[in-house]
Design a protein that fits this description.
- By secondary structure, the chain is α+β, with helices and mostly antiparallel strands.
- Helices cover 30% and strands 43% of the residues.
- The chain has helices at 18-25, 31-34, 113-117, 119-147, and strands at residues 5-14, 38-43, 48-53, 61-71, 76-83, 85-96, 99-110.
- A 7-stranded antiparallel beta sheet has the order 1-7-6-5-4-3-2.
Length: 152
C-alpha cells in the first residue's frame, strides 16, 4: 500500500438545481467566498490557477489546478492537480428531485515532504481533516446558494 496515495469520495445533497450548483462550482475564483478552507485561488489563465487550502491541521497545501473537463450538459467539472498533491478531482452533478446530488471524487499522491514523512501515523488524521473540510464546504455552498436565491 502506498501510504501517500489517497482516494476521497463525498456526496452532497443540495437544495438547489444542478444548473445553479454547477454555476457556482465552475467559478473556482469564488471558492474562498463560501468555502472557508479554500484560502486562495489565483487565476493564471482561462483554464489554470493556483490554489491554497488549509483545514483544521496547521499546514497549507498548495497546488496548480488545470481544467481538464468542463461539461455542463453532463454536470461534470474535472481538474488535474500538481504541487503538494498530484492527481485529479471531479465534481459530477445529477438531479435529485428538485435538488442536486453532487459527487466529489479525488485521487491524489501527496508530495509535500512533511506529510510524506508522517504518512503512516498521520493517515487517519489527514483523512479526518479532509472530511471536516468537505463538511464545511457543503455548509458554505448551501449558505451561498441560499444567499443568492438559488436554493429550492
Amino acid at each position: 500500500m502506498d501510504w501517500c496515495h489517497y482516494r476521497f469520495r463525498s456526496l452532497w445533497t443540495l437544495a438547489a438545481s444542478p444548473a445553479a450548483v454547477y454555476d457556482v462550482l465552475q467559478r473556482a475564483d469564488d471558492y474562498p467566498h463560501w468555502w472557508p478552507q479554500v484560502r486562495e485561488v489565483i487565476r493564471i489563465d482561462d483554464t489554470t490557477g493556483t490554489v491554497r487550502i488549509r483545514s483544521v491541521l496547521p499546514y497549507d497545501l498548495g497546488f496548480t489546478a488545470r481544467e481538464i473537463r468542463r461539461d455542463p450538459a453532463a454536470g461534470v467539472l474535472e481538474i488535474a492537480m500538481t504541487g503538494d498533491m498530484d492527481g485529479w478531482a471531479r465534481w459530477t452533478l445529477t438531479a435529485d428531485g428538485t435538488g442536486t446530488l453532487a459527487r466529489y471524487h479525488q485521487e491524489v499522491d501527496v508530495t509535500k515532504p512533511l506529510l510524506r514523512r508522517l504518512a503512516v501515523p498521520g493517515r487517519p488524521v489527514f483523512r479526518a481533516n479532509h472530511a471536516l473540510m468537505m463538511r464545511a464546504g457543503r455548509r458554505g455552498l448551501l449558505t451561498y446558494l441560499a444567499a443568492h436565491g438559488q436554493a429550492v
